[in-house]
C-alpha cells in the first residue's frame, strides 16, 4: 500500500512525505485540469507529469514549496498562470474553496475530520500525571476526565481531556500534530487511535503471562501489551514482512519494551505444539483485512473491496483464527479487525465458533461500550464495533473468546475496570490498568 511504500522509503520526514503524496493523489484530477489549462507541461517539456502534480499541489494547495533548486524556481515561474487557472476553475464550478473542486468520493468525510487525536500514555516509561504536567508546561489546557463523546467533539485549540473509557488515553483536537513532540520521539506517548487500543486492553493478560501477538507490525498493540504486562512475562510477536518487522523493532525499542521475541514468520506456519509456546495463555489476533474502517485525515478512501476480495480475506481470517485457537494452553483470545464488513467480522467468528463446538465461547466485551456486533447470529451482541459517528474513532470490530471449562462460572467481561470507568490507577482486578507510578522523564 501507499503508506508502506512511503514509510519504507528511508526518507527522513516520512509523515510529511506521506501527507504530500496522499494529498496530491486525492487532488489528482483537479491538478491534471490545472496543468492542461495552464499548459505547464507544454511549456516545460522536461518536467515529469507526476512531479508536476506534486509541485503544483504544494504550490497552490499545500504549505508552500519546501524544495529548493531548479524545480522550485520552475514552479514559481508559472505561479501566476496556475493561480489564474485555479480561479477560473472555481468560477466555472461556482465554488469558493479548493476542497469543493473534489468529487464527493475524494473529499474527507465529516466523520473523519471529527475523530480526535488520541494519545496513549506509555506506562513503561511514565504515567498519566507526568504527561499531563508536561503538556501543561507546553501551554496546553487540561480539562480533566471527559464525561461523554460530545465533550470530545467540542475539543479545540490547545485543550485536551482524559478519555472516559480507557484510563491511559488522552484526547486532543483532531488536527493536533505531535509527531515532533519530545514525548513522542522519546517513546513516552504512543499516537494510537482509541479503537486500536481496545484489543490489548480487552485481552488483559496479567503480568507474567505468555502472550502471542499473531500479526503484530507495526507494533503499537504489541507495545500496549507490554505495558499491560509491565514488561513481566513473554510476548511472541510475528509478522511475515522483514521491513515491517524492522519498523516494529524500532518502535518497541523506543517504547522501552523488553521480554518480546520478534519473528519474521507467517503465523500460520508457527507450530502450536512447539514447547516454547506451551505457556501461551493469551493471543491477540488482528489479521490482514480490507481496512474499510480506517478513516483517513487526508487521502481519499480506497475503493470498496469486491465480493471476491472479501471472501478471500474472510477465508484467510478463518484459517488464522482456527490456528490461533489450536494453541493448547490458550485461555483467552481477542480477534479484531479495522473492517466494517460483516464477512470479515461476525461471519468469521460465527463460523469458527461452530467449528470448535463447545471448546470456546464469546464473552461480552466491554458491556458499557455503546456499539455492539451486528445481529448475524445469537450472541453476536457480545462483540463490539467502533465507528466515527457513534464512538468518535476509526471503524473497528472486536470479539473476545475464552476457553470453556467444565463447572466454571460464567466468564467475566474483563477488564473489570472498564465496566465502571475507573480513574487511572484504580482497579486491582486482573486486566485493570496498571497503577500509575511517578518517574522522572
Second-tier CATH architecture of the largest domain: 3-Layer(aba) Sandwich
Query: What name is given to the CATH topology of the largest domain?
Result: Rossmann fold
The H-level CATH homologous superfamily of the largest domain, spelled out, is Vaccinia Virus protein VP39
Q: Report the sheet-strand fraction.
A: 5-15%
**Poorly predicted ranges:** 297-301, 407-414, 416-441
Q: How many β-strand stretches?
A: 13
Helical amount: 25-40%
Q: Please report the distance between the alpha carbons of the first and last residues.
A: 36 Å
- Which structural class should the secondary elements be placed in? alpha/beta
Coiled coil: 72-99
Subcellular location: Nucleus, Nucleolus
Domain SAM-dependent MTase RsmB/NOP-type: 107-404
Active site: 338
Walk me through what this model shows.
It contains 18 helices and 13 strands. It has 441 residues and is α/β, with parallel strands linked by helices. It folds into three domains: 100 residues, no CATH class; 75 residues, Sun protein, domain 3 (Alpha-Beta Plaits), CATH 3.30.70.1170; 210 residues, Rossmann fold (3-Layer(aba) Sandwich), CATH 3.40.50. Strands 6, 7, 8, 9, 10, 11, 12 and 13 form an eight-stranded mixed sheet that branches. It has a five-stranded mixed sheet with strand order 2-3-4-1-5. Strand 3 and strand 4 form a beta hairpin. Helix 3 crosses helix 7, helix 12 crosses helix 13 and helix 15 packs across helix 16. The protein is globular. GO terms for molecular function: RNA binding; rRNA (cytosine-C5-)-methyltransferase activity. One of its GO terms (cellular component) is nucleolus. InterPro entries: MeTrfase_RsmB-F_NOP2_cat, MeTrfase_RsmB-F_NOP2_dom, NSUN5_7_fdxn-like, NSUN5_RCM1_N, RCMT, SAM-dependent_MTases_sf. It is found in: Nucleus, Nucleolus.
Amino acid at each position: 500500500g501507499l503508506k508502506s511504500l512511503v514509510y519504507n522509503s528511508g526518507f527522513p520526514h516520512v509523515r510529511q512525505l506521506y501527507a504530500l503524496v496522499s494529498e496530491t493523489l486525492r487532488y489528482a484530477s483537479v491538478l491534471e485540469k490545472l496543468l492542461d489549462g495552464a499548459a505547464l507541461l507544454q511549456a516545460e517539456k522536461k518536467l515529469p507529469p507526476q512531479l508536476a502534480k506534486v509541485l503544483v499541489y504544494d504550490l497552490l494547495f499545500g504549505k508552500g514549496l519546501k524544495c529548493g533548486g531548479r524545480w522550485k524556481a520552475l514552479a514559481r515561474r508559472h505561479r501566476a498562470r496556475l493561480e489564474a487557472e485555479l480561479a477560473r476553475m472555481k468560477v466555472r464550478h461556482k465554488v469558493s474553496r479548493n476542497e469543493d473542486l473534489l468529487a464527493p468520493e475524494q473529499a474527507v468525510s465529516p466523520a473523519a475530520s471529527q475523530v480526535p487525536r488520541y494519545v496513549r500514555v506509555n506506562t513503561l516509561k511514565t504515567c498519566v500525571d507526568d504527561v499531563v504536567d508536561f503538556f501543561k508546561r507546553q501551554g496546553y489546557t487540561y480539562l480533566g476526565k471527559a464525561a461523554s463523546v460530545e465533550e470530545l467533539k467540542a475539543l479545540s485549540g490547545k485543550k485536551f481531556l482524559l478519555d472516559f473509557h480507557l484510563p491511559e488515553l488522552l484526547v486532543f483536537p483532531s488536527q493536533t500534530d505531535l509527531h515532533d513532540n519530545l514525548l513522542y520521539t522519546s517513546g513516552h506517548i504512543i499516537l494510537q487511535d482509541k479503537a486500536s487500543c481496545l484489543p490489548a486492553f480487552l485481552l488483559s493478560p496479567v503480568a507474567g503471562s505468555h502472550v502471542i501477538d499473531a500479526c503484530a507490525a507495526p507494533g503499537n498493540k504489541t507495545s500496549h501489551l507490554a505495558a499491560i504486562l509491565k514488561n513481566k512475562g513473554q510476548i511472541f510477536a510475528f509478522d511475515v514482512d522483514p521491513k515491517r518487522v524492522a519498523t516494529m523493532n524500532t518502535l518497541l525499542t523506543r517504547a522501552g519494551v523488553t521480554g518480546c521475541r520478534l519473528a519474521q514468520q507467517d503465523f500460520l506456519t508457527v507450530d502450536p505444539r512447539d514447547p516454547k509456546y506451551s505457556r501461551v495463555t493469551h493471543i491477540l489476533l488482528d489479521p490482514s483485512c480490507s481496512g474499510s474502517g480506517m478513516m483517513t485525515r487526508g487521502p481519499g478512501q480506497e475503493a470498496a473491496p469486491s465480493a471476491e476480495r472479501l471472501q478471500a480475506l474472510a477465508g484467510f481470517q478463518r484459517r488464522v483464527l482456527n490456528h490461533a485457537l489450536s494453541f493448547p494452553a490458550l485461555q483467552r483470545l481477542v480477534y479484531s479487525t479495522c473492517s466494517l464488513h460483516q464477512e470479515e467480522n461476525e461471519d468469521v467468528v460465527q463460523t469458527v465458533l461452530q467449528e470448535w463446538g463447545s471448546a470456546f465461547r464469546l464473552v461480552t466485551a466491554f458491556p458499557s461500550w455503546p456499539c455492539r456486533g451486528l445481529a448475524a447470529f445469537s450472541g453476536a451482541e457480545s462483540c463490539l464495533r467502533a465507528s466515527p459517528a457513534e464512538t468518535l474513532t476509526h471503524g473497528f470490530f472486536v470479539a473476545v473468546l475464552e476457553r470453556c471449562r467444565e463447572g466454571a462460572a460464567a466468564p467475566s467481561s474483563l477488564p473489570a475496570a472498564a465496566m465502571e470507568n475507573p480513574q487511572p490507577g484504580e482497579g486491582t482486578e486482573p486486566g485493570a490498568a496498571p497503577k500509575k507510578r511517578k518517574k522522572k522523564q
